[in-house]
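Let's practice the habit of predicting before peeking. Look at the sequence and jot down your guess about where helices and strands might fall. Then scroll down.
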Amino acid sequence: MMLKNLLETLKNLHHINSQDEFAALLARDNELMQQVKTADSKHWVHFTKQTFDGWYCVPTPQQTTFHVYYQERGQNCWGEDVFSDQSEAIAAAIFMSGLWDSEYHPAP
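Done guessing? Here is the structure:
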């Protein structure tokens, strides 16, 4: 499933309007969190370290903290926010990317 489609479904189904509400939903549902992390993200949101441009939410090896940042041309371009809670980190990456608020127009 495309990440954008999944987010649209979650927004409508759960009436989510904020980053905090989205993080709370993810914190309650580990299966949903896995769905978000594995959805096809053609919108530059990544959950593992890669060389692609875009927003990243990457755990440390011990998974005790999660780093959210924007990468371009293999370089960390815009700051790095560190979260101790994975659901908050994922929500932050999605909201910072603009993906949450972008328009979605399904193909006819």
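How did you do? Residues 3-97 form one domain.
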